[in-house]
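Z., the sequence and structure:
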Amino acid sequence: MGSLPVFWCFIFTYIKVSICLRIVGISVPPLKQRGESATLTCDYDLEGGRLYSVKWYRDNEEFYRYMPRLRPPQHAHKLDGVRVDLEKSTARRVHMRELTLKSRGLYRCEVSEEAPSFHSAQSEAFMEVYYFPRETPRITGHERAYQLKEPLDVNCSSAKSFPAPDLQWVVDGQKITDRSWLIAFGAKPASQGLLVSTLGLRAPTKQRMKLKCVATIGTHRRERTVIIEVNTSCWNKPFSLLIIIAIKIICVKIS
């Protein structure tokens, strides 16, 4: 008998390597003041892959890209409200100078891998740009002479700002939360794209009242305080003056 054939079994093990690009984190300042600068960072993990490009968008419009294959690797596109400082920008951050109100918007970082995968990942965050002048709010209606128990009728208006400031009334150290005392006039447009907020106060009067109006944007605040002295005399001034004159006339006749 011939020898039996020998069969060799080869077991092949296939290991599938998955390279998954991911954005570790994006950092966009949530609130910046007009005229300031801002640094936006995009931290990513290629997990073994090679970087093809990093692109930044504001409201879906590209304004900066970094491509290591190019020389120079950086390029900034013209976009209203966006001024990129290329010397301070890299593959993981973009530096913007002299922010304007038009700089506000939704910022997105998009990272792509080299061929053959061309995997991409993205993340986004909103940046608000504000303008808050040094002027304090303006209070009107407190100049008139109030009688006791006469309803208080005053308004507070912010200086021209952006976005519209939040207003709060404080009476004798107590914040007013009773909506029946407050009249919200909302925000009205002003010059240069700014806004003015107005909040009315309708409250019972007391003999002496300390009124404070506070305007806030984020952690910034401006305030104005006025004092109201309520006339508690049962005689009004013209009538009291007539009584004094009559007394003097009587005194002269008697003498």
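The mean pLDDT is 84. The domain at 22-130 is CATH 2.60.40.10 (Immunoglobulin-like).

Let me know what you think.
H.
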